[in-house]
């Protein structure tokens, strides 16, 4: 950051200092240019996206021919018919039975089978969870005995490997049909289908000789959602608990243990270990699902990759899946899109403008190829918007999120078949395609010598085969936040009447003693502003903690929770204002100044926003980008309304309007409802939605929640404070 | 004044409460294992390990786990194994650290009062009383003590189970003793702090200056000028010169007596400490092993696990055959700055000590936030002198930004695996730059302040004469 002051005006400062001073003194212009450029750069991102390429040479996707045979498929079909032929009347028995069948099939293939029991914990607000690393969250207390699930894990040991590495294949499957609403029907068939695909691959892999990494087939008991079992298993896999748990279980969960024992007996002839089975470190994980909706045109593969806090798996993993799916299996690959953007008018216009620009550029010089067609642009920006949104939320889009917390790259593959496969040949072809895809991916990963590291971790997808890397999208963000330190410095300099050497003020070197006395403590004047900013941030932290107490209220609907939350926040702000910002402290220091104390307050606010956005951009880039789009204009515009009222010109009137609009939009709940209205229409608005949204944020330990409470909200309050300042 | 005093005690109690609350929180913050808080030298976990080794009659220095003093081992060691049912694990040690923090704060406060008294006296003797008006409001000792107590770095070091509160305490003890002229105390503090963490050894210069000249004063030249001005009536230059020397002698003489005392006492204390140490390590090792494992460990930078300093990365990268050369260069870096600073700031020994501490905490081999806590606390002592320091706001923002970014970058590197060591090291570099700016700006602010005093006294004299 360039320095605000120069030492002595007589001496000609160095060029870099002069440049800094130049920028600071023209901060208004710099602001407008940088912010516009920042927004423009964001809109340009779909244009700047590069084609993906496979960066790690060892992967060699598709170099070997597929080995899946009809035998594997008929075996898989037998498993599927065994599973669906069960009698589902007593639920527990059915669960046992299906697990038994699965175990039998697995161990017939020569795999080591083990069960993993986990307890489902309902999400609770825990204020300290945000800061803890995954290893310290081994709080096994307070689980309810009724909510438990049993995962089945099958491990094939690699004939060529040393057992130090493993590849994980996850298929969620509902064993116990506990949910009253659940009916075994179409979705069950889809799950069985995903099991058959996985089994096809598994049975092949049990025979092949080239395997260098162990294969873990993890059938997750998904009655409590797909994420919970995977997460519990991963935690037990990586962080073994040596004490406490066993005795605890023995005391409280006798029934379950009985059940467990019974189950063990019923399949006693099988080779089942009751201990926790491990393979080596995980190189990658694939979560395989078959969607229960059908596609009209062709078999489609949906890729989900976003993990917690906007983390993404290594791009190479997506690349090989995309490459194999498109070029070998002829599947249509899709990533998530914001569908509403697809038919938005302004995006179309923008796309056409960019297309036109591209054509003009190409006519000038055929070597310039940056234009893309308008349709591509719209498609790309819809995908990019969804990528941004899901990364910004910080909530994983599937069970793959659990793997990323342990530094394992994982993606979810959701395959949607064209027609529901009653047709036998079609069914087998679908199995073959899915199986070959998974086989190819596993074979590629099997070739890997090191961890995935070659390709990008920080990127956003604009289509399955195009991405924007960190070096490109950071520019948009950097342009957006660059004015902040400049404006802070210029405001600070103005308020302190510092001589920047450019305003042609001849500083009198022979300043009298009394003048110098006045300067004393001027450079510490910001302490009062800093105190105010600090108090507001403490308030922000308090607001963040309030849901913890609101959750304790029984039978509270989301709407009433929202109302209580808002009310308590306002109340605490009022109390803080009465106690903290007492006017007596200001008397001693406030002397007639050019811009008054609001300028210093604004300067402090902007500095804090800058720091907050910077830290957030490292934690979760997408959240910082969206936050910057909302916060930066508001912070830069903020000026006391009273001043503008006094002037009464058109320009100040415009500024008032801008300020009010920005002040409304940047308020988090307001922003939420505005976005919701735009995308879902006005009638679907409910106060409780905001609570639910925030609840999902804290339930998933999203850093966005902290960002909203510790950066966004306090800065919004400070900006409003500046707007209403009585100067 | 009475109200202010009560305010001070209230804030002090509040800070103690905060510490106790943080100690009783479940250890989800994992402060004790953060690289910013616990380095190999100050980590209490290592101390507990060393104590365990000692209990099983192995040398506590075996296995390169413990690198602290054997005295600290026998002082804090028994506390690490004592568990109280239903209480946090290291409660007793934490309480010791809290007490150390409180004593440090009180000592800083007393030192501040002494310094401010001296400052006022010197201003009075220079007849520039109007400068006092602004500083009447603030008592720099109180503020410095509160800054020390409420600094998040101090709190982190205290709660995060590192022994740096104790090390800071002995440093402050030395400064306090020197300020008050309590020679044995100063000698004890200096010897103990050198024994505990080696780097405070350079504080011998400010301590000797403090004992010789007394607390911080404006430059001596001012008194000479003053003497000259007072006797400006009689224009005989010879006479004037005579009187001037007389007067200046009365004001600023380097008194050797306390210095000799100090040297005597410090040799006494060091002999005592060495004897105690040798008794403590006798059954398992020798004094030589202790020196190798403590001072040697500090000087040769054996442990290159990441910390907030700048040396670990460098020595992880550098070729082995250059290693000793760069070790010498980096350690001489601190020594190079001692002499020029001592000459320039010899009239302000306390401030000189602050600068030395800041520089060594920037360049030392295993810095932690506890070191920053010490010099940031001492910074408050020079409130009057630093009143027009530049970049203060920038520095605050920088400190906040770096202390937020550093854990995030560490997380990115270690836990997420998407960043690398450069990310974390970058924050270390930024932190070092901030410290450099702080040192440079505070020195220039103090020099400017001296210039201002001279200008004031000159105008006073001119007014008086005319």
TrEMBL record, chain A:
<keyword id="KW-1133">Transmembrane helix</keyword>
<feature type="transmembrane region" description="Helical">
    <location>
        <begin position="470"/>
        <end position="493"/>
    </location>
</feature>
<dbReference type="GO" id="GO:0016255">
    <property type="term" value="P:attachment of GPI anchor to protein"/>
</dbReference>
<feature type="transmembrane region" description="Helical">
    <location>
        <begin position="699"/>
        <end position="724"/>
    </location>
</feature>
<dbReference type="InterPro" id="IPR007246">
    <property type="entry name" value="Gaa1"/>
</dbReference>
<keyword id="KW-0472">Membrane</keyword>
<feature type="transmembrane region" description="Helical">
    <location>
        <begin position="653"/>
        <end position="679"/>
    </location>
</feature>
<dbReference type="Pfam" id="PF04114">
    <property type="entry name" value="Gaa1"/>
</dbReference>
<keyword id="KW-0812">Transmembrane</keyword>
<feature type="transmembrane region" description="Helical">
    <location>
        <begin position="20"/>
        <end position="45"/>
    </location>
</feature>
<feature type="transmembrane region" description="Helical">
    <location>
        <begin position="604"/>
        <end position="632"/>
    </location>
</feature>
<protein>
    <submittedName>
        <fullName>Glycosylphosphatidylinositol anchor attachment 1 protein</fullName>
    </submittedName>
</protein>
<dbReference type="GO" id="GO:0042765">
    <property type="term" value="C:GPI-anchor transamidase complex"/>
</dbReference>
<feature type="transmembrane region" description="Helical">
    <location>
        <begin position="533"/>
        <end position="551"/>
    </location>
</feature>
<feature type="transmembrane region" description="Helical">
    <location>
        <begin position="563"/>
        <end position="584"/>
    </location>
</feature>
TrEMBL record, chain B:
<feature type="transmembrane region" description="Helical">
    <location>
        <begin position="143"/>
        <end position="163"/>
    </location>
</feature>
<protein>
    <submittedName>
        <fullName>Phosphatidylinositol glycan anchor biosynthesis class U protein isoform X1</fullName>
    </submittedName>
</protein>
<comment type="similarity">
    <text>Belongs to the PIGU family.</text>
</comment>
<feature type="transmembrane region" description="Helical">
    <location>
        <begin position="89"/>
        <end position="108"/>
    </location>
</feature>
<keyword id="KW-1133">Transmembrane helix</keyword>
<keyword id="KW-0472">Membrane</keyword>
<dbReference type="Pfam" id="PF06728">
    <property type="entry name" value="PIG-U"/>
</dbReference>
<dbReference type="GO" id="GO:0016255">
    <property type="term" value="P:attachment of GPI anchor to protein"/>
</dbReference>
<feature type="transmembrane region" description="Helical">
    <location>
        <begin position="350"/>
        <end position="366"/>
    </location>
</feature>
<keyword id="KW-0337">GPI-anchor biosynthesis</keyword>
<comment type="pathway">
    <text>Glycolipid biosynthesis; glycosylphosphatidylinositol-anchor biosynthesis.</text>
</comment>
<feature type="transmembrane region" description="Helical">
    <location>
        <begin position="198"/>
        <end position="215"/>
    </location>
</feature>
<dbReference type="GO" id="GO:0042765">
    <property type="term" value="C:GPI-anchor transamidase complex"/>
</dbReference>
<keyword id="KW-0256">Endoplasmic reticulum</keyword>
<feature type="transmembrane region" description="Helical">
    <location>
        <begin position="262"/>
        <end position="282"/>
    </location>
</feature>
<dbReference type="InterPro" id="IPR009600">
    <property type="entry name" value="PIG-U"/>
</dbReference>
<dbReference type="GO" id="GO:0006506">
    <property type="term" value="P:GPI anchor biosynthetic process"/>
</dbReference>
<feature type="transmembrane region" description="Helical">
    <location>
        <begin position="169"/>
        <end position="191"/>
    </location>
</feature>
<feature type="transmembrane region" description="Helical">
    <location>
        <begin position="394"/>
        <end position="415"/>
    </location>
</feature>
<feature type="transmembrane region" description="Helical">
    <location>
        <begin position="7"/>
        <end position="25"/>
    </location>
</feature>
<feature type="transmembrane region" description="Helical">
    <location>
        <begin position="321"/>
        <end position="343"/>
    </location>
</feature>
<keyword id="KW-0812">Transmembrane</keyword>
């Amino acid at each position: 950051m360039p320095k605000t002051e120069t030492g002595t005006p007589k001496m000609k400062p160095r060029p870099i200092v002069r440049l800094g001073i130049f920028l600071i003194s023209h901060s208004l212009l710099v602001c407008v240019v940088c912010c516009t450029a920042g927004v423009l750069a964001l809109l340009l991102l779909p244009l700047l996206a590069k084609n993906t390429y496979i960066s790690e040479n060892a992967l060699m996707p598709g170099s070997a021919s597929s080995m899946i045979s009809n035998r594997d498929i008929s075996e898989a079909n037998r498993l599927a018919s065994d599973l669906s032929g069960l009698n589902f009347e007593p639920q527990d028995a059915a669960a046992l039975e299906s697990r038994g069948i699965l175990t039998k099939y697995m161990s017939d293939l020569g795999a080591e089978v083990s069960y993993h029991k986990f307890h489902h914990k309902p999400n609770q607000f825990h204020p300290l969870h945000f800061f803890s690393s995954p290893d310290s969250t081994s709080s096994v207390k307070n689980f309810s005995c009724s909510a438990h699930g049993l995962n089945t894990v099958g491990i094939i040991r690699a004939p060529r490997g040393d057992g130090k590495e493993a590849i994980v294949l996850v298929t969620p499957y509902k064993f116990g049909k506990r949910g009253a609403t659940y009916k075994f029907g179409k979705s069950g068939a889809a799950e069985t289908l995903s099991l058959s695909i996985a089994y096809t691959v598994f049975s092949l892999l049990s025979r092949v000789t080239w395997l260098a990494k162990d294969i873990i087939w993890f059938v997750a008991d998904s009655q409590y959602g797909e994420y919970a079992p995977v997460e519990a298993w991963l935690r037990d896999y990586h962080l073994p608990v040596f004490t406490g748990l066993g005795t605890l279980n023995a005391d409280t969960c006798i029934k379950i243990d009985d059940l467990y024992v019974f189950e063990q007996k019923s399949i006693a002839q099988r080779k089942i270990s009751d201990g926790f089975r491990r393979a080596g470190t995980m190189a990658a994980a694939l979560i395989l699902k078959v969607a229960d909706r059908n596609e009209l045109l062709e078999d489609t593969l949906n890729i989900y990759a976003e993990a917690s806090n906007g983390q993404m798996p290594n791009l190479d993993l997506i690349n090989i899946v995309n490459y194999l799916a498109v070029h070998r299996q002829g599947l249509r690959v899709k990533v998530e899109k914001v569908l509403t953007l697809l038919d938005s008018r302004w995006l179309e216009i923008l796309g056409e403008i960019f297309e036109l620009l591209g054509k003009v550029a190409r006519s000038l010089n055929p070597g310039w190829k940056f234009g893309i067609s308008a349709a591509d642009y719209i498609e790309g920006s819809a995908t990019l918007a969804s990528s941004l949104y899901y990364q910004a939320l910080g909530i994983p889009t599937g069970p793959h999120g659990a793997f990323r917390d342990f530094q394992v790259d994982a993606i979810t593959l959701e395959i949607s078949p064209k027609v529901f496969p009653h047709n036998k040949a079609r069914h087998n072809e679908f199995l073959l395609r899915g199986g070959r895809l998974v086989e190819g991916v596993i074979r590629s990963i099997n070739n890997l010598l090191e961890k995935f590291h070659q390709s990008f971790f920080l990127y956003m997808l604009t289509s399955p085969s195009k991405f924007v890397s960190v070096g490109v999208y950071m520019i948009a963000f950097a342009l957006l936040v660059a004015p902040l330190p400049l404006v802070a410095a210029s405001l600070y300099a103005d308020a302190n009447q510092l001589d920047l050497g450019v305003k042609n003020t001849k500083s009198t070197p022979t300043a009298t003693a009394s003048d110098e006395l006045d300067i004393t403590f001027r450079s510490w004047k910001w302490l009062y502003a800093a105190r105010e900013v600090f108090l507001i941030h403490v308030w922000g932290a308090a607001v963040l903690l309030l849901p913890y107490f609101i959750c304790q209220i029984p039978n509270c609907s989301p709407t009433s929770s929202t109302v209580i939350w808002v009310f308590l926040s306002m109340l605490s702000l009022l109390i803080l204002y009465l106690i903290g910002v007492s006017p007596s402290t200001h008397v001693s220091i406030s002397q007639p100044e050019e811009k008054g104390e609001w300028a210093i307050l604004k300067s402090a606010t902007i500095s804090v926003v800058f720091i907050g956005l910077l830290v957030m951009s490292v934690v979760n880039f997408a959240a910082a980008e969206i936050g910057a789009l909302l916060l930066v204009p508001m912070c830069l515009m903020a000026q006391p309304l009273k001043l503008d009222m006094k002037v009464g010109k058109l320009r100040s009137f415009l500024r008032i309007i801008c300020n009010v609009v920005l002040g409304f939009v940047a308020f988090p709940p307001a922003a939420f409802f505005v976005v919701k209205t735009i995308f879902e229409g006005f009638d679907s608005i409910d106060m409780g939605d905001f609570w639910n949204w925030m609840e999902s944020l804290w339930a998933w330990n999203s850093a966005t929640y902290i960002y909203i409470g510790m950066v966004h909200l306090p800065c919004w309050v400070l900006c409003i404070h500046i707007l209403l300042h009585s100067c | 004044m009475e109200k202010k005093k009560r305010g001070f005690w209230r804030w002090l109690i509040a800070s103690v409460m905060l510490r106790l609350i943080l100690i009783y929180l479940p250890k989800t913050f994992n402060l004790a294992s953060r690289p910013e808080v616990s380095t190999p030298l100050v980590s209490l976990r290592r101390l507990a390990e060393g104590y365990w080794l000692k209990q099983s009659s192995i040398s506590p220095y075996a296995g390169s786990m413990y690198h602290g003093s054997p005295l600290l081992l026998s002082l804090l060691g028994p506390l690490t194994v004592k568990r109280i049912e239903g209480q946090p694990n290291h409660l007793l040690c934490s309480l010791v650290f809290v007490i150390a923090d409180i004593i440090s704060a009180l000592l800083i406060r007393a030192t501040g009062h002494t310094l401010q008294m001296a400052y006022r006296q010197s201003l009075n003797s220079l007849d520039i009383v109007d400068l006092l008006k602004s500083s009447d409001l603030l008592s720099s000792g109180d503020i410095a003590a509160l800054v020390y107590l409420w600094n998040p770095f101090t709190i982190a070091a205290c709660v995060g189970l590192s022994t740096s509160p104790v090390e800071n305490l002995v440093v402050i003890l030395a400064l306090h003793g020197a300020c008050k002229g309590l020679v044995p105390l100063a000698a004890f503090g200096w010897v103990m702090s050198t024994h505990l963490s080696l780097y405070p050894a350079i504080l011998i210069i400010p301590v000797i200056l403090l004992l010789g000249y007394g607390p911080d004063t404006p430059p001596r030249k001012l008194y000479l000028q003053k003497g000259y001005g007072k006797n400006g009536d009689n224009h005989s230059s010879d006479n004037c010169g005579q009187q001037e020397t007389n007067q200046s002698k009365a004001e600023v003489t380097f008194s050797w007596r306390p210095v000799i005392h100090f040297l005597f006492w410090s040799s006494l204390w060091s002999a005592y400490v060495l004897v105690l140490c040798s008794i403590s390590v006798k059954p398992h090792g020798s004094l030589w092993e202790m020196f190798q494992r403590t001072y040697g460990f500090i000087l040769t930078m054996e442990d290159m696990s990441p910390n907030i300093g700048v040396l670990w990365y460098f020595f992880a990268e550098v070729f082995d055959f250059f290693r000793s050369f760069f070790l010498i260069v980096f350690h001489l870096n601190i020594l190079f700055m001692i002499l020029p600073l001592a000459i320039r700031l010899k009239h302000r020994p306390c401030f000189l000590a602050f600068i030395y501490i800041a520089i060594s905490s920037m360049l030392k081999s295993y810095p932690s936030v506890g070191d920053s806590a010490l010099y940031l606390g001492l910074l408050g002592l020079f409130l009057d002198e630093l009143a027009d320091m530049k970049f203060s706001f920038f520095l605050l923002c920088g400190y906040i930004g770096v202390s937020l970014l550093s854990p995030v970058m560490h997380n990115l590197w270690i836990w997420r695996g998407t960043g690398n060591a450069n990310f974390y090291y970058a924050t270390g570099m930024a932190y070092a730059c901030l410290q450099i700016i702080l040192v440079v700006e505070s020195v220039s602010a103090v020099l400017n302040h001296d210039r201002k005093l001279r200008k004031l006294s000159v105008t006073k004299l001119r007014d008086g004469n005319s």
